[in-house]
TrEMBL record:
GO BP of this protein: isocitrate metabolic process; lysine biosynthetic process; tricarboxylic acid cycle
Catalytic activity: (2R,3S)-homoisocitrate + NAD(+) = 2-oxoadipate + CO2 + NADH
Residue ranges constituting the Isopropylmalate dehydrogenase-like domain according to the UniProt record: 18-368
A GO cellular component annotation in the UniProt record: mitochondrion
Pathway connected to this protein: Amino-acid biosynthesis; L-lysine biosynthesis via AAA pathway; L-alpha-aminoadipate from 2-oxoglutarate: step 4/5
PANTHER family: DECARBOXYLATING DEHYDROGENASES-ISOCITRATE, ISOPROPYLMALATE, TARTRATE, HOMOISOCITRATE DEHYDROGENASE, MITOCHONDRIAL
Entry EC number(s): 1.1.1.87
Gene from which the chain derives: Piso0_004682
GO molecular function annotations of the record: homoisocitrate dehydrogenase activity; isocitrate dehydrogenase (NAD+) activity; magnesium ion binding; NAD binding
Protein name as it appears in the record: homoisocitrate dehydrogenase
Protein family: Belongs to the isocitrate and isopropylmalate dehydrogenases family.
Cofactor(s) required for function per UniProt: Mg(2+)
Pfam families linked to this entry: Iso_dh (PF00180)
Length: 372
């Protein structure tokens, strides 16, 4: 599913690859080292790969100490020195904190990471009913964060938020979703593995029956991208699903979904909900992706309730590391990582408490590294 492989037939021949490491808050500091350890193991297996690392700051805790959540230095190093990055977790206060905004949201904007790609696959060999990728538009919708609160003449307050859907953002996220569907089908055909999906499909998720202007535009542009690129996408089946019925069917019939594309808010909700289908947010990876950069990011958040206990699940970070490598143009080492994680999960002996085990973070990391 490498973005560079989608956009170009030329291969990447970098001998030295620099990865930014941004632990962030909470258990981010416990799982990002797992990603680094896996990359070092991959380096020892592939003679033509060498990884360098840049330790970078961001997060709510950094904001509390320094008054800024995303320092300029972090952005500059990522832009000018790094080939990819891993982001651990960020604490998000439930109430407004003056001057604070999420650093991962800011990074998406500053680095042009317009897509959040989240594969959701059954964690064990005995359950093959889930194998989908949710492709979430990453830059607009309600997440433009243009909000205001005002007081009416009767003294009651009203809060309003802008929902922005643009033709430009929708076109590029739709193209990525269709290309991912094609790439997944190619992998299925070459691997000869048993698959849930006999043909590639993209399900466009919307609420245009109510939001006829904003979601209506999203639906229209996704369809137009499909129709105008039939020479490329003719083998992909175009589907549509209203978001509330999408949630219902995703839990009742997850096996019918291959690639799902959605505006920012729906994509956020669907991808977190889909994690429940495979047991834990601790096993679900994601990548924030643009045309020239990718940040791997686990989906579990900062988890303050288990911080410091050494039991956080590193698998989401390790899979996100592999996903980052895919989008950087390194599918073979990514596949090695995926296979090692799948073997760990299938065997089921060494697992953290969120999956019903009693192993530590480091024990899981060591087991996966042993399998690469």
């Amino acid at each position: 599913m490498s973005l560079r492989r989608m956009l170009s037939t030329s291969s990447t021949n970098l001998k030295s690859i620099k990865i930014g490491l941004i632990p962030g808050d909470g258990i981010g500091r416990e799982v990002i080292p797992a990603g680094k350890s896996v990359l070092k193991k991959v380096e020892s297996k592939y003679n033509d790969l060498k990884f360098e690392f840049a330790d970078l700051d961001a997060g709510f805790e950094y904001f509390q100490k320094n008054g800024v959540a995303l320092p300029d230095e972090t952005v500059n190093v990522l832009k000018n020195e790094c080939d990819g990055a891993l982001f651990g977790a960020v604490s998000s206060p439930s109430q407004k904190v003056e001057g604070y905004s999420s650093p991962i949201v800011a990074l998406r904007k500053k680095l042009g990471l317009y897509a959040n790609v989240r594969p959701v696959k059954a964690a064990t060999a005995t359950d093959k009913s889930v194998d989908m990728v949710i492709v979430r538009e990453n830059t607009e919708d309600l997440y433009v964060k243009e909000e205001k609160t005002y007081t009416k003449e009767d003294g009651t307050r009203v809060a309003e938020a802008i929902k922005r859907i643009s033709e430009t953002a929708t076109s590029r996220i739709a193209k990525m979703a269709y290309n991912i569907a094609l790439q997944r089908q190619k992998i299925r055909e070459t691997s000869n593995a048993i698959s849930l999906h006999s043909e590639p499909s993209v399900t466009v998720t919307h609420k245009s029956n109510v939001l006829s202007q904003s979601d209506g535009l999203f639906r229209e542009i996704c369809r137009r991208v499909y129709d105008e690129n039939q020479s490329s996408f003719s083998s992909v089946k175009h589907k549509e699903q209203i978001v509330d019925s999408m949630v219902y069917r995703m839990f009742r019939e997850p096996e019918i979904f291959d690639v799902v594309v959605a505006p920012n808010l729906y994509g956020d909700i669907l991808s977190d909900g889909a994690a429940a289908l495979v047991g834990s947010l601790g096993v679900v990876p994601s990548a924030n992706v643009g045309d020239n950069f990718a940040i791997g990011e686990p989906c579990h958040g900062s988890a303050p309730d288990i911080e410091g206990k050494g039991i956080s699940n590193p698998i989401a970070t390790i899979r996100s590391t592999a996903l980052m490598l895919e989008f950087m143009g390194y599918p073979d080492p990514a596949a090695d990582i995926y296979e090692a994680v799948d073997a760990n999960l299938s065997e089921g002996k060494i697992k953290t408490p969120d999956l019903g085990g009693s192993s530590s973070t480091q024990e899981v990391v060591d087991d996966i590294i042993r399998r690469i």
